[in-house]
Amino acid sequence: MERLPPLSPQPGETRRALVARTLREAAARGLVPQGTRLPGHRRLAEALGVSRNTLVDALEQLQAEGYVRAQGRSGTVMAAPPLGAPPPSPAPLPLSRWAQRALAGQVEEAGGPFAVDFRVGQPVPELYPERAWTQALARRAGDQPAHEDAGSLGPLATRRALAAHLNAGRGAQVTPEMVMLTGGTQSALDALARVFLEPGRVAAVEDPTYPGARAALAATGAQVVPVPVDAQGVQPGQLPAGATLAYVTPGCQYPTGVPLGAARRQALVVWARRTGAFVLEDDYAADLHHTGRPPAALQGLAPEQVILLGSFSKSLAPVTRSGFLVAPPEVLRVLAATRPLTDRFPARLDALALADVLGSGAYSRHLRRAHEVIARRQAALCAALQRALPGWAPVPVAAGLHLYLPLPAPWTEAEVLARAARLGVGLSAVGPLASGACAPALLLGFAHLPERTLQDGAARLSAALTS
User: Fold this and answer.
1) What residues does the HTH gntR-type domain cover (predicted)?
2) In whole angstroms, what is the distance from residue 375 CA to residue 206 CA?
3) What is the rounded end-to-end Cα distance, in angstroms, of the chain?
4) Which end of the chain is less packed: N or C, by CB atoms within 10 Å?
């Protein structure tokens, strides 16, 4: 008995599970060798500090697993051989090349906590229409058969609502048959990358860009070619002729925030038609244009060459996991046929709730309120930065949830981030979003912070840079 490891319960672990795990570990480590006869049930239970019934339940489980063997009046003996000594040091994981490429594409930011956290990607409670969403969920949960299958594309009611929303508000050309529901933009990018890319093929991405897009495309082993971005957005003349896919954010370039003008949109479509490449249009900020109407979706110009990606993770809430993909029918047929190999079907209840929120007008009313909050907070941060850092020039954007702040010479991103962190301010840098050298700049997420906190953050940043 003295050879048994001590009982060390884990969170939520029952006494029966604890006893079973302790005896299992004793057998695996050779503390109680194979063939050892255990003490009687009453004595063993007392030694372990559990009831006899608990011990018997644990031994029955271990017998079913083959760790112990009951021998009638002869008692219970350990039946499993030890695992042997563990290796002196953990062996490296046998990662696939896909996993290695995926890990290499990750971008990590310094951890907090920060008194004022301007880092991008923060949830915004005001962008969650809780009442409308919970009512839609409750209504749909009560009237939908649990066994009804939505198919690989998602419920038709939601695809109809999305098509109407995109055609009316985004100038798109969409029918319900062109829509696939997704768990978000990242899952759509992964599916498209797996279907169209492999080693030896080429994908193009804006530079700088959303790192999740570059990582998803590069994980396939395809060559990912960065295409420079300037004050007018991506430069179509720099797109590679042999690309299969090109990832762009024409409505609001990420991270600079500039929209793509009409001439460049036309050039992008001409390039796609000439090369046969598909353009992946990430419409990430379409519903977050808080200073006017958003530009029309590029998909409306060339629905046969543009695959439109969208998500409600920012305009509703990340917890909804509601996104969509709009593609030509021949592309959608392939995606629908290959989808069951990875994530089966979209969440039906969330999808139907989304259809109700879109169709009832609740989403439009919610966006009007959210736009007021976003615009007010952006103005407050711009004013606070102009007071605190005269001579610096934050770039207000018409959409999205962050400011773009170019750094004047001789400041570097690393130096500003380090100084700000010492005074409790978290920032995001643009450098990690680019493949090559780019002008130093910061991203300041603002929509999740109240105006007083924004002003405090600007004052702290000024103190950090003048001390």
Assistant:
1) 13-81
2) 27
3) 65
4) C
